[in-house]
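Changelog-adjacent note: as of this version, every example in the card shows the full chain rather than a window. The one below runs 132 residues end to end.
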Amino acid sequence: MVLKIVDAYELKPGSFAIFDGEAYVIKNVDHSKTGKHGASKCRFEAISVIGEKKKMAVYPGGERIEVPLIDKRKAQVLALVGENVSVMDAENFENFELPIPEEFKGQITDGSTLEYWDVEGKKIIKRIGLTN
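Full-length structure tokens:
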């Protein structure tokens, strides 16, 4: 698992964080000021990178939060295999299968190029129809 650690107050909308062992993209952040009896708080609204689940989380501003390093790669489609697609990585020529997300069903064809993300060892298709 490749990741880095940052303070909660450093996270901005559009950045990634790991909450409960799953990678999320942060959509909204609210910072509260320090009070008489406590530290500042950060309230995050986030959506899962893989399952599109929503998450609300509150952390102290100085809390250390894990941030995943997402590997964004290109691949060429070799064949459609039922609900999956067989692809070849454009850099290291590794062959593997990926599940086709609901939004891309019927749009992927043999020989086309797509972008996939490797997030914490899980690979997901994020864009299709890329040009080299």
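Structural remarks: The chain has two domains: 3-68, 71-128.
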